[in-house]
Design brief:
Number of helices: 11
Keywords: DNA-binding, Phosphoprotein, Transcription, Transcription regulation
CATH architecture of the largest domain: 3-Layer(aba) Sandwich
Number of strands: 5
GO molecular function: DNA binding
InterPro entries: CheY-like_superfamily, NreC/VraR/RcsB-like_REC, Sig_transdc_resp-reg_C-effctor, Sig_transdc_resp-reg_receiver, Tscrpt_reg_LuxR_C, WalR-like
Shape: globular
Protein name: LuxR family transcriptional regulator
Number of domains: 2
Order of helices and strands: EHEHEHEHEHHHHHHH
Distance between the termini: 40 Å
Largest sheet: 5 strands, parallel
GO biological process, one term: phosphorelay signal transduction system
CATH superfamily of the largest domain: Response regulator
Helix content: 40-55%
Strand order of the largest sheet: 2-1-3-4-5
Structural class: alpha/beta
Radius of gyration: 17 Å
CATH topology of the largest domain: Rossmann fold
Length: about 220
């Protein structure tokens, strides 16, 4: 079954380029294109995409507002924010709004396709150096949500270890190897972490882990 993708960008050439990349992959399909946030919300309701590629800055409703509204809906799609710059001030807010990560618009075709697959699986798109720098800047701002410490206390020792490895960008397979358990066991732990922290996906768990100092960004 293919991953359904909605492309949202106010530049037609960008949308065409991304469509060509996506449709060249047998396991991915484009179900619509939108030029602003309002159109994106309408098309998302109609086409039910799995992943939305969302531009940050657009006329009318911008990508940040659209992302917050999209991720608040039942069975919300995963959202990947698109930006021209490697450290956009609005991207941390986008992660808080429910985005599953971000990509630069000059991303390589193969990396774009793989990013869509990763996010569709519910995994974190937090590997790029730019994302680490983004988190590094805002971790110092003490933006922890109210009650976050209490949620962290709900985790068992093993679940906290899983959270730390997630925040370091480890995949389920890598976590399984480090902890000497099966990937099925890791998935169970990850589900428990998300439930106890009251976050919607791995990305939000990682943001919270950095906020609370469970892990700290490594020096550049």
């Amino acid at each position: 079954m293919s991953v359904r993708v909605l492309i949202v960008d106010d530049q037609a050439l960008v949308r065409v380029g991304f469509r060509m990349i996506i449709e060249a992959r047998e396991d991915l399909e484009v179900v619509g294109e939108a030029g602003d946030g309002e159109q994106a919300l309408r098309l998302a309701a109609q086409s039910r995409p799995d992943v939305v590629l969302m531009d940050v800055r657009m006329p009318g409703m911008d990508g940040l507002t659209a992302t917050a509204r999209l991720t608040a809906t039942p069975d919300a799609p995963r959202v990947i924010m698109l930006t021209t710059y490697d450290l956009d001030e609005s991207l941390y807010a986008a992660l808080r709004a429910g985005a599953s990560g971000f990509l630069l618009k000059d991303v390589r075709p193969g990396d774009l396709a793989e990013a869509i697959r990763v996010v569709a699986r519910g995994e974190a798109l937090l590997a790029p150096t730019a994302t680490r720098r983004l988190l590094d800047r805002f971790v110092a701002a003490d933006l922890s949500p109210p009650g976050a410490d209490a949620r962290l206390d709900r985790l068992t020792g093993r679940e906290r270890e899983v959270l730390e490895l997630l925040a370091r960008g480890a995949s389920n397979a890598e976590i399984a190897t480090r902890m000497t358990v099966t990937e099925a066991t890791v998935k169970t732990h990850v589900s428990a972490v998300l439930r106890k922290l009251d976050v919607r996906d791995r990305v939000q768990a990682v943001v919270l882990a950095y906020d609370l100092g469970v892990v700290r960004p490594r020096p550049s």
